[in-house]
Write a structure and sequence with these properties.
The protein has helices at about 50-70, 90-105, 120-125, 145-165, 180-190, 225-235, 245, 250-260, 265-270, 270-290, 290-310; strands at about 1-5, 15-20, 25-35, 40-45, 75-85, 110-115, 170-175, 195-200, 215, 240. It has 2 domains: about 1-125, Rossmann fold, CATH 3.40.50; about 145-310, 3-Layer(aba) Sandwich (Rossmann fold). The radius of gyration is 19 Å and the shape is globular. It is an alpha/beta fold. Helix 1 crosses helix 11 (about 290-310), helix 2 packs across helix 3 (about 120-125) and helix 10 packs across helix 11 (about 290-310).
Length: about 300
């Protein structure tokens, strides 16, 4: 294990950034804060030549996890890992090696699969570590359900902010990707008589002027390419965006319940906190005429600082 030597990219306030390798599994693991010593974060798979993108992703995503946990008043720390896919793909040996790398952290890294991993991959990783949650066919199951239900809460809150009513019927929704979250969300929206379309659009300075929507409220992490500039542009165009680390917190709520031996029912009961947080962000955004991400980040930092003071 060694500290990664990309100093030009790691000018951050992260507590620790590690490069780890076991056999054909190469991992970058970033701890943004330690919290109570147990840190939550997902693992995403990237191409073997991702290089600079991988470092930027792991730093940005782990920082966003800090804000996500702050908004749900969690005492836990936060981290993120990216793993590089070898040329021969996701073999059983590769997945076992990922599990071994997680196990090496001795319980301070509590993981779950993320981008480009499949549910069956998590089951194989679990054979090498006990520190991976949201396993298919387990008591809690995958976290896509709680994430989707939380996003649905956020969508209703956003509709009410924009239109004065949280009714889904009569509105159209474009969903980017039909993975574990997207499929469940699409099904719920259709049941509420919403019109659903599948989209594949990244949100950046080039695409924002082309948007024909009034609200962005999605489950993916780090949706904006440039959080500062894109947030301002969306505000100028009167497009309401729900900060991702607020609206998609359902999954980590489930993860915490699983870790402490709680229940899925308890996790679902906490989802209204997402709506409460969004209402506060939207009200402050309107009052100060600033973007929702700018407001959310300030609120998260204040919550995080309060957590440190009361530790």
């Amino acid at each position: 294990m060694k500290k990664i030597q990309l100093q030009d990219l790691i000018k951050t306030k992260h507590k620790e950034v590690l490069f780890k390798q076991k056999g054909n599994a190469k991992m970058i693991l970033a701890y943004h804060t330690y919290g109570n010593g147990v840190c939550f974060g997902g693992i995403r798979l990237l191409p073997f030549n991702a290089g600079e993108k991988a470092v930027k992703d792991v730093l940005r995503l782990s920082e966003a996890m800090t804000y996500k946990l702050a908004f749900i008043n969690s005492p836990y720390g936060d981290c993120k890992a990216v793993v590089f896919e070898p040329s021969n793909g996701k073999t059983i040996n590769f997945l076992h090696n990922i599990g071994a790398l997680i196990e090496e952290e001795k319980g301070r890294f509590i993981s779950a699969i993320d981008f480009d991993f499949e549910p069956d991959d998590a089951k194989i990783i679990r054979e090498s570590t006990k520190y991976i949650l949201a396993i298919k066919d387990s008591k809690f199951g995958q976290s896509g359900t709680t994430t989707a239900y939380g996003v649905l809460e956020g969508i209703k809150t956003s509709l009410n902010e924009m239109y004065g009513s949280d009714l889904i019927a009569g509105h159209s929704f474009a969903i980017q990707g039909l993975g574990s979250v997207g499929v469940i969300l699409a099904d719920k929206l259709i049941k509420f008589s919403g019109k659903v379309y599948v989209s594949d659009l990244d949100i950046n300075q080039d695409t924002i002027p082309k948007l024909k929507c009034k609200i962005i409220a999605g489950g993916a992490n780090c949706q904006l390419e440039d959080e500062f500039e894109d947030d301002k542009k969306l505000r100028e165009l009167r497009i309401l965006i729900a900060p991702d680390y607020v609206i998609n917190a359902g999954g980590v709520m489930q993860g915490i319940e699983e870790l402490i031996g709680g229940s899925l029912k308890n996790a679902m009961a906490k989802l209204p906190l997402i709506s409460k947080n969004l209402k506060q962000i939207y009200a402050k955004s309107k009052q100060e005429n600033r973007g929702t991400y700018a407001i959310a980040k300030e609120m998260a930092i204040l919550k995080f600082n309060d957590k440190i003071k009361n530790k």
